Amino acid sequence: MTDHPVELPEFVETEEGSSLYYKNKWLYSRHKPVSRAIALTAALPIQEECLYIVYSPCLWYGIPELLARLPATSAILALEHDPALYKLAQDNLPHTIKDAMEQKRLALMPYGLEANVFDIVSRLGRFRRVQEVILSSGWTLAPVWYKAFPQKLLQHFSDYYRSRLTLMRMGMLWIRNTLKNILALPPVPAQIPQSLKPVLVCGAGLSLYNALPFIKQSRKDFFILACDTAFGTLKDAGITPDSIVCLDAQIYNMKDLIGYKETGILPHAFLDISAHPSFYKNIFTSVTPVITQWAQTALLTRLLNLPYNFITLPPYGSVGITALALAAKIAQKEIWITGLDFAFTGGWTHAPGTHIDQHELAHESRLYKRTQSWSMSFREGTTAVNLFLRTEPALEMYHASCKTLLEQYKNEFIIIDIRSTHGLELGLTKIELNEINDKLFLDSSNSENFTQSGNNKPVCTSFIDTQEAHNPISNSHTVSNSQALSSDAVAENSVIIFKDFIVREYQAIQELREILITGTEPSILTQKLLELDYLFIHFPDYERVTALGLDFLKRVALACEYWMFYLAKICPECKRS
């Protein structure tokens, strides 16, 4: 067998330089390849904070001229899918292109590095828009590959700036709650519940309300993991969830748990470290603390280094998606979903029984008929999914994140969608509630994920006792005196660790404040600032930290005063340190 020769681009001389002929295509003009490329770049709009995406740069015609016109906030990403054309581009780099690469104003990315495109672009700068640049016909060899990048990068930029705006608005509140909640953490965190029953994830969408009769009838056959917003709907139906997920930092969200005393103390909760401190005040029998890594901050890194069993999760942004991620840590085989609709019906943005619904009922009058819900349903930015459902950009973003997460779980779990016609499509197996056979739940022989008890009924192992989990030899729940003393010692040690953590933060801020007053080497100051990045992470221009601008440092000095006052307020030991 003879190897077929690899086809290479053919140089064809013209009156103003070389053109290229490759795979039965002219990649540049047959007559004026250089001037034609320069004319194309001259017609491009020049914008600030713009990433110019050059498809198949080949011989780089026109690109030095484009570089000369770009403002300092813009850059070029050159893409090449074909290996032969990628080698050609590397072998024919003009000096201006090499200099631009060294100055991080231009990058060349070949096929196979698509997963790294965001990292490559981040090294070029921060951008708000993209502009396609087509100077050769090389892109026609793989048009789908090239054309996927602008939308992908625009979405990435949008996500980044949305996150920045969220940090600017919520960053200080998250930090305040985190620091205060450190002192309120349970000395020994509850382990993640483990259930042999299917886990039913309950969001607060309208589909939850429609599923209530089924949930109530089959209550004993599920481990119910509810979002805090869904608690009111479940409570009104006489259903107490096995566990609740609470992430929200604002006190407004505490209203979701109004009436919890009617059901007794709730058994278990996953509480985010940045949730409102009121969530930590004896509402739940047991608490599993969660750290949602909402920012790459050194504070959370130090917190995770403490000898404490935190659960860490990515910043999904939605309590419903977070509940789904936690359900995967609880379930053995099956996860059922309701209430995660990512859409709403006109006048009903949430299920009946939720706090928002109760607010509408409380204000109802002859002239007020769910006015706020109707205005929210048709506010600017909402779009119609069909005749009955509407959605909005934020919900669509959460929907995309949910689908990505479900894609990761599809080979590990059986995931059942009981939302009926409510909600955006998730690509799951759907079961209509009126078609469900009771034997699916009541006959344990039909469900492999149930354990068998003596009376042939499903059994759920909802929680693992902390002492038992650490002692695999013992299956008894009897706690000896030595175990009790050991537990008390662990609890006391945890309290000391948490207070020491806050005191160390106070001392570090105090040291930075002294440095800002007296001065020091720029390298030392930069290091101290990066160690305490949460002082300025909410600044609109926080990325200027390494520039050490005087205006920036003055604002940091004010932040030092604020956080020293706050830490001394929540932990009096700080002033005695």
Explain how this protein is built.
By secondary structure, the protein is of the alpha/beta class. The protein folds into three domains: 149 residues, 3-Layer(aba) Sandwich (Rossmann fold); 281 residues; 76 residues, no CATH class. It contains 18 helices and 21 strands. It has a nine-stranded parallel beta sheet. The protein has a four-stranded parallel beta sheet with strand order 6-5-4-7. Strands 1-2-3 form a three-stranded antiparallel beta sheet, with no helix packed on it. Helix 7 links the parallel strand 8 and strand 9. Helix 10 runs parallel beside helix 13 and helix 16 packs antiparallel against helix 18. The chain starts with 9 loop residues before the first strand and ends in a 7-residue tail after the last helix.
